[in-house]
TrEMBL record:
The keyword Membrane applies. PANTHER family: CELL CYCLE PROTEIN, PEPTIDOGLYCAN GLYCOSYLTRANSFERASE FTSW-RELATED. It is a multi-pass membrane protein. Peptidoglycan polymerase that is essential for cell division. InterPro entries: Cell_cycle_FtsW-rel_CS (IPR018365), FtsW/RodA (IPR001182). The keyword Transmembrane helix applies. This is Probable peptidoglycan glycosyltransferase FtsW. Belongs to the SEDS family. FtsW subfamily. Keywords: Cell shape, Glycosyltransferase, Membrane, Peptidoglycan synthesis, Transferase, Transmembrane, Transmembrane helix. It is an enzyme of class 2 (transferase). The chain crosses the membrane at residues 12-33, 53-70, 82-101, 113-133, 145-162, 168-184, 191-208, 274-300, 312-330, 350-374. It catalyses: [GlcNAc-(1->4)-Mur2Ac(oyl-L-Ala-gamma-D-Glu-L-Lys-D-Ala-D-Ala)](n)-di-trans,octa-cis-undecaprenyl diphosphate + beta-D-GlcNAc-(1->4)-Mur2Ac(oyl-L-Ala-gamma-D-Glu-L-Lys-D-Ala-D-Ala)-di-trans,octa-cis-undecaprenyl diphosphate = [GlcNAc-(1->4)-Mur2Ac(oyl-L-Ala-gamma-D-Glu-L-Lys-D-Ala-D-Ala)](n+1)-di-trans,octa-cis-undecaprenyl diphosphate + di-trans,octa-cis-undecaprenyl diphosphate + H(+). Its EC number is 2.4.99.28.
Protein backbone atom coordinates (compact mmCIF):
# COMPACT_ATOMS: atom_id res chain seq x y z
CA UNK A 1 0.00 0.00 0.00
CA UNK A 2 2.89 2.39 0.82
CA UNK A 3 4.33 1.91 -2.67
CA UNK A 4 0.94 2.65 -4.21
CA UNK A 5 0.67 5.88 -2.20
CA UNK A 6 4.16 7.00 -3.25
CA UNK A 7 3.34 6.29 -6.91
CA UNK A 8 0.13 8.31 -6.61
CA UNK A 9 1.85 11.62 -5.86
CA UNK A 10 1.81 14.16 -8.69
CA UNK A 11 5.53 14.73 -9.17
CA UNK A 12 4.99 17.08 -12.11
CA UNK A 13 3.21 19.50 -9.76
CA UNK A 14 5.98 19.19 -7.17
CA UNK A 15 8.63 19.79 -9.86
CA UNK A 16 6.93 22.94 -11.17
CA UNK A 17 6.67 24.42 -7.66
CA UNK A 18 10.33 23.59 -6.99
CA UNK A 19 11.55 25.10 -10.28
CA UNK A 20 9.47 28.25 -9.80
CA UNK A 21 10.71 28.72 -6.22
CA UNK A 22 14.38 28.26 -7.18
CA UNK A 23 13.93 30.56 -10.16
CA UNK A 24 12.38 33.14 -7.81
CA UNK A 25 15.35 32.84 -5.46
CA UNK A 26 17.79 33.60 -8.29
CA UNK A 27 15.73 36.57 -9.46
CA UNK A 28 15.41 37.93 -5.90
CA UNK A 29 19.20 38.03 -5.67
CA UNK A 30 19.47 39.80 -9.01
CA UNK A 31 16.65 42.27 -8.26
CA UNK A 32 17.59 43.11 -4.67
CA UNK A 33 21.38 43.54 -4.79
CA UNK A 34 21.35 47.29 -5.31
CA UNK A 35 18.25 47.90 -3.18
CA UNK A 36 19.81 46.08 -0.22
CA UNK A 37 22.89 48.34 -0.33
CA UNK A 38 21.42 51.69 -1.36
CA UNK A 39 18.14 51.74 0.55
CA UNK A 40 18.83 49.61 3.61
CA UNK A 41 22.63 49.58 3.98
CA UNK A 42 22.73 45.77 4.01
CA UNK A 43 25.02 43.34 2.22
CA UNK A 44 24.08 42.76 -1.41
CA UNK A 45 23.02 39.17 -0.65
CA UNK A 46 20.83 40.11 2.35
CA UNK A 47 17.42 39.39 0.77
CA UNK A 48 18.78 36.38 -1.11
CA UNK A 49 20.12 34.82 2.11
CA UNK A 50 16.84 35.43 3.93
CA UNK A 51 14.76 34.01 1.11
CA UNK A 52 17.04 30.98 0.97
CA UNK A 53 16.29 30.37 4.65
CA UNK A 54 12.58 30.87 3.94
CA UNK A 55 12.81 28.24 1.21
CA UNK A 56 14.43 25.69 3.51
CA UNK A 57 11.72 26.16 6.14
CA UNK A 58 9.04 26.14 3.43
CA UNK A 59 10.36 22.81 2.10
CA UNK A 60 9.83 21.11 5.47
CA UNK A 61 6.40 22.71 5.84
CA UNK A 62 5.47 21.53 2.34
CA UNK A 63 6.57 17.96 3.08
CA UNK A 64 4.60 17.91 6.34
CA UNK A 65 1.33 18.91 4.67
CA UNK A 66 1.98 16.77 1.59
CA UNK A 67 2.34 13.68 3.81
CA UNK A 68 -0.43 14.53 6.30
CA UNK A 69 -3.85 13.20 5.17
CA UNK A 70 -5.87 16.30 4.37
CA UNK A 71 -9.10 14.86 5.85
CA UNK A 72 -7.61 15.34 9.32
CA UNK A 73 -8.41 19.03 8.89
CA UNK A 74 -12.13 18.25 8.91
CA UNK A 75 -11.88 17.81 12.68
CA UNK A 76 -13.21 20.61 14.89
CA UNK A 77 -10.06 20.11 17.01
CA UNK A 78 -8.15 21.71 14.14
CA UNK A 79 -10.78 24.04 12.66
CA UNK A 80 -11.79 25.83 15.87
CA UNK A 81 -8.25 26.67 17.11
CA UNK A 82 -7.32 27.71 13.56
CA UNK A 83 -10.25 30.14 13.33
CA UNK A 84 -9.83 31.70 16.77
CA UNK A 85 -6.03 31.71 16.47
CA UNK A 86 -6.12 33.66 13.20
CA UNK A 87 -8.67 36.15 14.53
CA UNK A 88 -6.61 36.56 17.70
CA UNK A 89 -3.47 37.26 15.69
CA UNK A 90 -5.31 39.91 13.65
CA UNK A 91 -6.48 41.57 16.87
CA UNK A 92 -3.03 41.47 18.50
CA UNK A 93 -1.44 43.09 15.48
CA UNK A 94 -3.35 46.29 16.27
CA UNK A 95 -1.48 46.38 19.58
CA UNK A 96 1.94 44.89 18.82
CA UNK A 97 2.05 45.22 15.03
CA UNK A 98 4.72 47.00 13.01
CA UNK A 99 3.65 49.78 10.62
CA UNK A 100 5.05 49.66 7.07
CA UNK A 101 3.57 51.01 3.87
CA UNK A 102 0.82 52.87 5.76
CA UNK A 103 -0.52 49.59 7.22
CA UNK A 104 -0.05 47.92 10.61
CA UNK A 105 0.11 44.40 9.19
CA UNK A 106 3.31 42.78 10.49
CA UNK A 107 4.75 41.35 13.67
CA UNK A 108 8.38 42.43 13.74
CA UNK A 109 10.92 39.81 14.88
CA UNK A 110 14.38 41.37 14.58
CA UNK A 111 15.10 41.79 10.88
CA UNK A 112 12.26 39.38 10.03
CA UNK A 113 8.52 39.97 10.00
CA UNK A 114 5.36 37.86 9.87
CA UNK A 115 2.15 38.96 8.19
CA UNK A 116 -0.83 37.11 9.74
CA UNK A 117 -3.17 38.16 6.93
CA UNK A 118 -1.20 35.92 4.53
CA UNK A 119 -2.02 32.86 6.64
CA UNK A 120 -5.68 33.87 6.88
CA UNK A 121 -5.91 33.13 3.14
CA UNK A 122 -5.17 29.43 3.57
CA UNK A 123 -7.06 29.34 6.88
CA UNK A 124 -10.15 30.68 5.10
CA UNK A 125 -9.82 28.10 2.31
CA UNK A 126 -9.56 25.22 4.79
CA UNK A 127 -12.43 26.46 6.96
CA UNK A 128 -14.94 27.23 4.19
CA UNK A 129 -14.07 24.00 2.34
CA UNK A 130 -14.56 21.93 5.50
CA UNK A 131 -17.80 23.58 6.60
CA UNK A 132 -19.47 23.60 3.19
CA UNK A 133 -18.38 19.99 2.63
CA UNK A 134 -20.12 19.03 5.90
CA UNK A 135 -23.25 20.99 4.93
CA UNK A 136 -23.78 19.30 1.55
CA UNK A 137 -27.10 17.73 2.62
CA UNK A 138 -28.60 21.15 3.39
CA UNK A 139 -26.35 23.47 1.37
CA UNK A 140 -29.37 25.28 -0.09
CA UNK A 141 -30.91 26.21 3.25
CA UNK A 142 -29.86 29.87 3.36
CA UNK A 143 -30.00 30.49 7.12
CA UNK A 144 -28.57 27.10 8.11
CA UNK A 145 -26.29 26.02 5.27
CA UNK A 146 -25.08 29.25 3.67
CA UNK A 147 -24.78 32.09 6.21
CA UNK A 148 -23.04 30.62 9.34
CA UNK A 149 -19.60 29.96 7.72
CA UNK A 150 -19.48 33.52 6.44
CA UNK A 151 -19.23 34.98 9.96
CA UNK A 152 -15.53 34.07 9.99
CA UNK A 153 -15.07 35.63 6.55
CA UNK A 154 -16.70 38.91 7.63
CA UNK A 155 -14.76 39.16 10.91
CA UNK A 156 -11.40 38.34 9.29
CA UNK A 157 -11.87 40.80 6.42
CA UNK A 158 -13.00 43.52 8.83
CA UNK A 159 -9.87 43.08 10.97
CA UNK A 160 -7.60 43.06 7.91
CA UNK A 161 -9.28 46.16 6.48
CA UNK A 162 -8.83 47.80 9.90
CA UNK A 163 -5.01 47.58 9.56
CA UNK A 164 -5.77 48.99 6.87
CA UNK A 165 -5.06 46.44 4.12
CA UNK A 166 -8.01 46.60 1.75
CA UNK A 167 -6.15 44.76 -1.01
CA UNK A 168 -5.66 41.58 1.03
CA UNK A 169 -9.22 41.77 2.37
CA UNK A 170 -10.54 42.00 -1.20
CA UNK A 171 -8.36 39.04 -2.25
CA UNK A 172 -9.75 36.90 0.56
CA UNK A 173 -13.31 37.81 -0.45
CA UNK A 174 -12.57 36.78 -4.05
CA UNK A 175 -10.98 33.49 -2.96
CA UNK A 176 -13.93 32.76 -0.67
CA UNK A 177 -16.31 33.52 -3.55
CA UNK A 178 -14.76 30.78 -5.69
CA UNK A 179 -15.31 28.24 -2.90
CA UNK A 180 -18.90 29.43 -2.44
CA UNK A 181 -19.56 29.10 -6.19
CA UNK A 182 -18.04 25.60 -6.22
CA UNK A 183 -19.79 24.49 -3.00
CA UNK A 184 -22.93 23.29 -4.78
CA UNK A 185 -25.41 25.89 -3.53
CA UNK A 186 -28.00 27.07 -6.05
CA UNK A 187 -27.94 30.32 -7.98
CA UNK A 188 -30.78 31.75 -5.90
CA UNK A 189 -28.67 31.62 -2.73
CA UNK A 190 -25.66 33.04 -4.57
CA UNK A 191 -27.75 36.01 -5.70
CA UNK A 192 -28.97 36.48 -2.11
CA UNK A 193 -25.35 36.54 -0.92
CA UNK A 194 -24.40 39.05 -3.60
CA UNK A 195 -27.27 41.29 -2.56
CA UNK A 196 -26.43 40.95 1.13
CA UNK A 197 -22.80 41.79 0.42
CA UNK A 198 -23.82 44.89 -1.51
CA UNK A 199 -26.10 46.05 1.30
CA UNK A 200 -23.34 45.59 3.90
CA UNK A 201 -20.78 47.37 1.72
CA UNK A 202 -22.78 50.57 1.21
CA UNK A 203 -22.60 51.85 4.82
CA UNK A 204 -18.91 50.94 5.00
CA UNK A 205 -18.20 52.96 1.87
CA UNK A 206 -20.13 55.90 3.33
CA UNK A 207 -18.59 55.95 6.81
CA UNK A 208 -15.05 54.93 5.80
CA UNK A 209 -14.85 56.78 2.49
CA UNK A 210 -12.00 59.03 3.67
CA UNK A 211 -9.87 56.01 4.62
CA UNK A 212 -10.83 53.80 1.69
CA UNK A 213 -10.46 56.59 -0.86
CA UNK A 214 -7.33 58.13 0.64
CA UNK A 215 -4.89 60.18 -1.43
CA UNK A 216 -2.50 57.22 -1.73
CA UNK A 217 -5.21 54.84 -3.00
CA UNK A 218 -6.76 57.39 -5.31
CA UNK A 219 -3.27 58.03 -6.68
CA UNK A 220 -3.15 54.41 -7.80
CA UNK A 221 -6.39 54.86 -9.75
CA UNK A 222 -5.12 58.11 -11.27
CA UNK A 223 -1.90 56.42 -12.42
CA UNK A 224 -3.94 53.50 -13.75
CA UNK A 225 -6.11 55.78 -15.86
CA UNK A 226 -3.21 57.79 -17.39
CA UNK A 227 0.25 57.45 -15.83
CA UNK A 228 1.76 59.77 -18.46
CA UNK A 229 -0.56 62.70 -17.69
CA UNK A 230 0.98 66.04 -16.74
CA UNK A 231 1.62 66.18 -12.99
CA UNK A 232 1.12 62.41 -12.68
CA UNK A 233 4.16 60.97 -14.47
CA UNK A 234 6.62 62.16 -11.80
CA UNK A 235 4.35 61.24 -8.88
CA UNK A 236 1.58 58.62 -8.96
CA UNK A 237 2.57 57.30 -12.38
CA UNK A 238 6.30 56.99 -11.65
CA UNK A 239 6.19 53.31 -10.63
CA UNK A 240 4.04 52.08 -13.47
CA UNK A 241 5.98 54.04 -16.11
CA UNK A 242 9.26 52.49 -14.99
CA UNK A 243 7.57 49.12 -14.99
CA UNK A 244 6.55 49.70 -18.62
CA UNK A 245 10.13 50.64 -19.48
CA UNK A 246 11.45 47.44 -17.88
CA UNK A 247 8.82 45.28 -19.59
CA UNK A 248 9.64 46.78 -23.00
CA UNK A 249 13.43 46.93 -22.65
CA UNK A 250 13.93 43.18 -22.37
CA UNK A 251 12.44 42.27 -25.73
CA UNK A 252 12.54 38.58 -26.58
CA UNK A 253 15.93 37.57 -25.17
CA UNK A 254 16.37 40.16 -22.41
CA UNK A 255 19.40 42.24 -21.44
CA UNK A 256 20.94 39.35 -19.52
CA UNK A 257 20.76 38.12 -15.93
CA UNK A 258 21.79 40.89 -13.55
CA UNK A 259 21.73 43.58 -16.26
CA UNK A 260 18.47 45.33 -15.35
CA UNK A 261 18.66 49.12 -15.30
CA UNK A 262 15.27 49.80 -13.72
CA UNK A 263 16.23 47.96 -10.53
CA UNK A 264 18.94 50.59 -9.89
CA UNK A 265 16.57 52.80 -7.91
CA UNK A 266 13.85 53.36 -10.53
CA UNK A 267 11.53 50.55 -9.48
CA UNK A 268 10.58 51.04 -5.81
CA UNK A 269 10.15 47.34 -4.93
CA UNK A 270 12.09 45.38 -7.57
CA UNK A 271 12.34 42.18 -5.50
CA UNK A 272 8.71 42.08 -4.31
CA UNK A 273 5.82 43.73 -6.17
CA UNK A 274 7.74 44.48 -9.40
CA UNK A 275 9.92 41.40 -9.70
CA UNK A 276 8.24 40.38 -12.95
CA UNK A 277 9.33 43.69 -14.50
CA UNK A 278 12.95 42.81 -13.64
CA UNK A 279 12.46 39.30 -15.07
CA UNK A 280 11.11 40.77 -18.30
CA UNK A 281 14.02 43.21 -18.56
CA UNK A 282 16.76 40.68 -17.83
CA UNK A 283 15.38 37.47 -19.33
CA UNK A 284 12.94 38.86 -21.88
CA UNK A 285 9.91 37.04 -23.22
CA UNK A 286 11.38 33.63 -22.38
CA UNK A 287 11.61 34.45 -18.68
CA UNK A 288 8.09 35.86 -18.61
CA UNK A 289 6.64 32.83 -20.40
CA UNK A 290 8.40 30.46 -18.00
CA UNK A 291 6.70 32.14 -15.03
CA UNK A 292 3.32 32.39 -16.76
CA UNK A 293 3.30 28.75 -17.91
CA UNK A 294 4.46 27.53 -14.48
CA UNK A 295 1.79 29.46 -12.59
CA UNK A 296 -0.81 28.54 -15.22
CA UNK A 297 0.07 24.85 -14.86
CA UNK A 298 -0.38 24.99 -11.08
CA UNK A 299 -3.75 26.74 -11.38
CA UNK A 300 -5.13 24.46 -14.10
CA UNK A 301 -3.81 21.36 -12.35
CA UNK A 302 -5.53 22.44 -9.13
CA UNK A 303 -8.84 22.95 -10.94
CA UNK A 304 -8.44 19.55 -12.63
CA UNK A 305 -7.82 17.88 -9.26
CA UNK A 306 -10.89 19.59 -7.84
CA UNK A 307 -13.10 18.42 -10.72
CA UNK A 308 -11.80 14.83 -10.62
CA UNK A 309 -12.08 14.42 -6.84
CA UNK A 310 -15.11 12.62 -5.41
CA UNK A 311 -14.65 13.99 -1.89
CA UNK A 312 -16.36 17.43 -1.52
CA UNK A 313 -13.78 18.63 1.02
CA UNK A 314 -10.81 17.72 -1.18
CA UNK A 315 -12.44 19.22 -4.28
CA UNK A 316 -13.19 22.52 -2.55
CA UNK A 317 -9.65 22.66 -1.13
CA UNK A 318 -8.13 22.15 -4.59
CA UNK A 319 -10.35 24.77 -6.21
CA UNK A 320 -9.78 27.25 -3.38
CA UNK A 321 -5.99 26.87 -3.49
CA UNK A 322 -5.77 27.10 -7.27
CA UNK A 323 -8.04 30.14 -7.29
CA UNK A 324 -5.89 31.83 -4.64
CA UNK A 325 -2.75 31.39 -6.74
CA UNK A 326 -4.55 32.43 -9.92
CA UNK A 327 -6.18 35.54 -8.43
CA UNK A 328 -2.98 36.64 -6.71
CA UNK A 329 -0.93 36.12 -9.88
CA UNK A 330 -3.40 38.10 -11.97
CA UNK A 331 -3.50 40.90 -9.41
CA UNK A 332 0.29 41.24 -9.35
CA UNK A 333 0.83 40.93 -13.10
CA UNK A 334 -2.20 43.06 -13.92
CA UNK A 335 -0.94 45.84 -11.67
CA UNK A 336 2.57 46.13 -13.08
CA UNK A 337 1.32 45.87 -16.67
CA UNK A 338 -1.40 48.50 -16.22
CA UNK A 339 -4.39 46.17 -16.70
CA UNK A 340 -5.64 46.96 -13.17
CA UNK A 341 -4.55 49.47 -10.49
CA UNK A 342 -1.49 48.60 -8.41
CA UNK A 343 -2.28 46.71 -5.20
CA UNK A 344 1.08 45.68 -3.71
CA UNK A 345 0.34 41.94 -3.97
CA UNK A 346 3.43 39.67 -4.30
CA UNK A 347 3.82 37.23 -7.19
CA UNK A 348 3.38 33.65 -5.85
CA UNK A 349 6.63 31.68 -5.36
CA UNK A 350 8.71 34.36 -7.11
CA UNK A 351 8.48 37.56 -5.05
CA UNK A 352 10.50 38.00 -1.86
CA UNK A 353 8.58 37.32 1.34
CA UNK A 354 8.66 34.71 4.08
CA UNK A 355 4.99 34.87 5.09
CA UNK A 356 3.81 34.53 1.50
CA UNK A 357 6.16 31.63 0.77
CA UNK A 358 5.23 29.75 3.95
CA UNK A 359 1.49 29.99 3.40
CA UNK A 360 1.97 28.96 -0.24
CA UNK A 361 4.01 25.94 0.89
CA UNK A 362 1.14 24.95 3.21
CA UNK A 363 -1.34 25.39 0.37
CA UNK A 364 0.72 23.40 -2.14
CA UNK A 365 1.40 20.64 0.38
CA UNK A 366 -2.36 20.28 0.88
CA UNK A 367 -3.00 20.37 -2.88
CA UNK A 368 -0.38 17.69 -3.54
CA UNK A 369 -1.92 15.55 -0.79
CA UNK A 370 -5.42 15.94 -2.25
CA UNK A 371 -4.00 15.05 -5.67
CA UNK A 372 -2.39 11.92 -4.23
CA UNK A 373 -5.70 10.69 -2.81
CA UNK A 374 -7.51 11.42 -6.09
CA UNK A 375 -4.87 9.51 -8.08
CA UNK A 376 -4.83 6.65 -5.57
CA UNK A 377 -8.60 6.18 -5.77
CA UNK A 378 -8.55 6.36 -9.56
CA UNK A 379 -5.59 4.01 -10.07
CA UNK A 380 -5.91 1.44 -7.31
CA UNK A 381 -9.18 1.56 -5.38
CA UNK A 382 -11.28 1.12 -8.52
CA UNK A 383 -9.06 -1.77 -9.67
CA UNK A 384 -9.18 -3.36 -6.22
CA UNK A 385 -12.98 -3.11 -6.10
CA UNK A 386 -13.25 -4.68 -9.59
CA UNK A 387 -10.94 -7.53 -8.52
CA UNK A 388 -12.91 -8.02 -5.31
CA UNK A 389 -16.18 -8.15 -7.24
CA UNK A 390 -14.70 -10.64 -9.71
CA UNK A 391 -13.46 -12.85 -6.85
CA UNK A 392 -16.91 -12.78 -5.25
CA UNK A 393 -18.52 -13.76 -8.56
CA UNK A 394 -16.03 -16.62 -8.99
CA UNK A 395 -16.73 -17.81 -5.45
CA UNK A 396 -20.49 -17.78 -6.05
CA UNK A 397 -20.04 -19.64 -9.35
CA UNK A 398 -17.79 -22.21 -7.70
CA UNK A 399 -20.27 -22.78 -4.89
CA UNK A 400 -23.10 -23.21 -7.41
CA UNK A 401 -21.11 -25.84 -9.35
CA UNK A 402 -20.22 -27.67 -6.16
CA UNK A 403 -23.88 -27.65 -5.09
CA UNK A 404 -24.95 -29.19 -8.41
CA UNK A 405 -22.40 -31.97 -8.05
Amino acid sequence: MFKKIIKSYDYSLILVVLLLSVFGLVMIYSASMVTAIQRYGYESSFFYDKQKLHLIVAAFVFLFFALMPYKIMLSNKILIPMVFGSLGALLLIKVFGHVAGNAQSWFKLGTSSIQPAEFVKISMIIYLSAVYAKKQTYINEFNKGVIPPLVYLILACFLIAWQPDYGTAALIVMIASTIIIASGMNIKNMLKLAGLGTILSIPLLIFLKDKIFSDVRMGRFISFMDPFAEGVANKEGYQIINSYIALGAGGVKGLGLGQSIQKLGYLPEPHTDFIMAVIAEELGLFGVLFVLFSLGYIVLKGIYIGLKGKDPFGSLLAIGISSMIGIQSFTNLGGLSGVIPLTGVPLPFVSYGGSSLLQLSIAMGILVNVSMFVNYERKYKNKDSVKQQANQENTVTGNAIQFRK
